[in-house]
Amino acid sequence: MQLSVKHLLGIRDLSRQDIQIILDTATQFKEVLQRPIKKVPSLRDVTIVNLFFENSTRTRISFELAEKRLSADTINFTASASSVAKGETLLDTVNNILSMKVDMVVMRHSASGAPHFLAKHIPAAIVNAGDGINEHPTQGLLDAFSMREKLGRLEGLKVAIIGDIMHSRVAMSNIYLLKKMGAEVTVAGPPTLIPKYIQEAFDIRVEYNLKKALEWCDVANVLRIQLERQNQVLFSSLREYSLAYGINKRLLDSLNKKIVIMHPGPINRGVELDSDAADSNQSIILQQVENGVAVRMAVLYLLSGGREMN
Amino acid sequence: MQLINNENENLKQKTVSSLNFLRMKILIQQVTITDPSSPFNGTKQDVLIESGIIKDIQPAISVEADKVITGNQLHLSPGWVDVFAHFADPGYEFKETLETGARAAAAGGYTDVFVIPNTKPVVDSKTQAEYISQKSRSLPVNVHPIGAISKGTEGKDLAEMYDMRTSGAVAFSDGLNPIQSAGLLLKALQYVKAFEGTIIQIPDDKSVGANGLMHEGIVSTRLGLPGKPMMAEELQVARDIKLVRYSDSKLHFTGVSAPKSLEYIRRAKDAGLAVTCSVTPYHLFFTDEDLIDYDTNLKVYPPLRTKSDVEILRQAVLDGTIDCIASHHLPHEYDSKVLEFEYAKYGMTGLETSYSAIKTILPALTESRWVELVSINPRKIFGLDCPVIKKEAQACFTLFEPGVPVTFTTASFRSKSKNSAFTGKTLNGAVKGIINKETLFLN
Question: Does the ipTM surpass 0.85?
Answer without folding.
Answer: yes
